[in-house]
Design a protein that fits this description.
Elements (H helix, E strand, L loop, with lengths): L3 E17 L2 E21 L5 E3 L4 H13 L5 E8 L9 H17 L5 H8 L13 E5 L4 E7 L4 E7 L6 H6 L6 H20 L2 H16 L7 H10 L3 E4 L5 E7 L5 H16 L5 E5 L1
Helix pairs in contact: 1-2, 5-6, 7-8
Amino acid sequence: MRIGIGSCHGTFGELVQGMIDERPFLITLPISHLKSEAVFIPSLTATEITVVDSKGKALKAGKLLTQQFDLPIGGSLEIRSNIPSGKGMASSSADIVAAIRAIADSYSLPITKEMISAIAVQIEPTDGVMYDEVVAYDYIHGELIEGFGTHPSFHLVGIYFGGEVDTVQFNQLEKKYKRQDHAIFIQAYELIREGFRRRDFSLISKAITLSARVNQKILPKPFFYEFEKLAQDYQGGIVVAHSGTVMGILLDGNLPNQNEVISQISSRISNIVKKTKIGVFKFV
């Protein structure tokens, strides 16, 4: 055994989230700049795993992993993350995956993404962050549906109004989708599939906006329609955390005058919200 290291990226909400044929799904939006990093220091004398900073979900994941391999091991687990919690950016899912990877690295355990999913979903609905590329993922049952590969180049102007959402509690609520909503989910899914196949940002942009509109009836975001119009002015789309508090404007990474466009959008966001306290951040 040795000191184990593991990491996992976060997300910015989801490209699409909903239900098709009674199966819940989300399509991930991985953000490499957001990361949870775990270090596991094994102990020859300890029989329990302890964790720094009260990362209870990560601790539970570590215990489930050791039980699965029937290893009576102990040690210290430390997690460092720059992912804000409770915002819909996969902070706890990233902690769980990073912790599993660190302990597995320490003991050279032969884990797979499917095994990580099976453990993570026992703790909470999980965001599919064990997959590095964009995937369609059943976040309730922890199952991969389909992979789409890497996202075409994009810029993201994120907006945060404050507050948090408890993912576990939120996913226990019944989502009263209408028949037309289910049709939109199918349309958005197919647009994502075709958009990735053709590397066509406009199709992806349309898909995420369709999904965000449905979610606006479930978990409303302030100034949603003003931001949707702003995104359309720059041939972009609206992306939201379907079970969180962030929303953003997703832009084609190949737009000309990118810095000028992002500066214009940030200025217009300030004009829309006026004195409302928000956070604005950018990802490339």
